[in-house]
Write a structure and sequence with these properties.
The structure is a single chain. The protein has 362 residues and is of the alpha/beta class. Helix 11 crosses helix 13. The chain is globular and about 65 Å long. The relative contact order is 0.09.
């Protein structure tokens, strides 16, 4: 998950450091120029002159924003850019003393509620979560969607079902048996003490006064759905892959297995591979994609460079000297995700001579 941290004061910098230590990959800390030199060199730091400018860029660049400052400042900075709970990044706010952490935006689908609990535990703060379903202790369908990387459709049904939950009404869960990895979703729901019903063929008709969630393929979602039905559609998992010349298929498959294991998935759940055109003839990479039965898209260095600039991706000097750009795995995955972009499930991670990044499309 691409994470940006912001602080405005010296005491805020100290808390930002502690929070960054709890972020996988460390995240990028953003500080005003007057605080230059107040943080050790091992942290990835961006200095800014105007908070409004850097927040605007970060809102579309990162998956999560952690702000160590007054909530009012954050609300005013973000107001012009808030668009949809389906696409906005998670936004958390911490007071400088580290007493409270607030889940401010995208609590469920963006993952802000879970992140708030995680980072509050890391720094000893009290989590402040105001989402109605969380407050009442019920597991909302859109929270399930976020945890299982499913896209909720239509958006309007989210509120209908969450309201029903708050009124103590039951929600029935269905899973299409022809859905790839249906058993995985059934097991995940069972772990949350949710019993799902498998169905084959046409979507079962909705019962009287029934509220339901149906996990199925995107192409099977009807154009006009019943308002008490929320569909959860699997998001594509894109694997961006970079590798040294001559790496074997076995080593690439091993790297993919380890990478997927880090996010609780199997390599068979990868939908698409992405890499640089420099690797178009790399036999080990081509063989790995063929073994898993997936397409692989190759992108020229100009496209990769555009993604590096757009998302502020970290670059490797060695990779830049070798192929002309300093980031292959993350940049290629973002190219494959298209204009809508995606949420990074696993930032670029090196496994020997193979580098892998995993991205859920939005």
């Amino acid at each position: 998950m691409r994470t940006a941290l912001f602080a405005l004061t010296e005491s805020g910098v100290q808390l930002a450091r502690r929070l960054a230590d709890a972020v996988e990959g460390g995240g990028t800390i953003h500080l005003p120029e007057r605080l230059h030199g107040h943080i050790p060199s091992e942290y990835d730091v961006v200095y800014f002159s105007r908070l409004a400018d850097v927040i605007k860029t970060a809102f579309s660049r990162y998956d999560a924003l952690i702000c160590v400052m007054a909530t009012g400042i954050v609300v005013r900075m973000l107001a012009p850019y808030v668009e949809s709970k389906l696409y906005d990044p998670a936004v958390l706010v911490f007071d400088e003393a580290g007493r409270h952490g607030i889940s401010l935006l995208s609590g469920h689908i963006g993952g802000a509620n879970e992140l708030t609990r995680k980072f509050c535990a890391a720094v000893g703060a009290d989590p402040v979560i105001t989402t109605a379903t969380d407050v009442t202790g019920v597991f909302a369908p859109d929270a399930i969607a976020a945890r299982l990387a499913l896209r909720p459709v239509p958006k309007s049904a989210i509120q209908v079902l969450n309201t029903a939950l708050l009124e103590r009404k039951e929600i029935a869960y269905y899973i299409a048996s022809n859905l790839p990895h249906a058993a995985f979703y059934e097991a995940q729901l069972r772990a949350e003490e949710i019993q799902a019903r498998l169905f084959r063929g046409e979507i079962p008709p909705v019962g009287a006064d029934e509220y339901r969630v149906i996990i199925t393929r995107a192409e099977d979602v009807p154009s006009e759905s019943e308002p008490r039905t929320l569909y959860l559609v699997p998001r594509r998992l894109i694997a961006g892959v970079g590798c040294r010349a001559g790496v074997s298929e076995a080593k690439i498959l091993r790297a993919l297995t380890e990478a997927c294991g880090m996010i609780g998935r199997e390599p068979s759940m990868i939908d698409l591979f992405a890499s640089t055109t420099v690797k178009r003839e790399e036999q080990g990479l081509l063989a790995a994609a063929a073994t898993l039965g997936r397409e692989i898209h190759f992108y020229p260095k100009e496209r990769l460079a555009a993604m590096i600039e757009r998302y502020g991706l970290m670059e490797s000097d060695f990779v830049r000297q070798t192929i002309g750009v300093g980031n292959v795995s993350e940049a290629a995955a973002l190219c494959a995700a298209g204009e809508a972009g995606g949420r990074m499930a696993l930032g670029k991670t090196t496994f020997g001579k193979v580098t892998v990044a995993l991205l859920w499309e939005k």
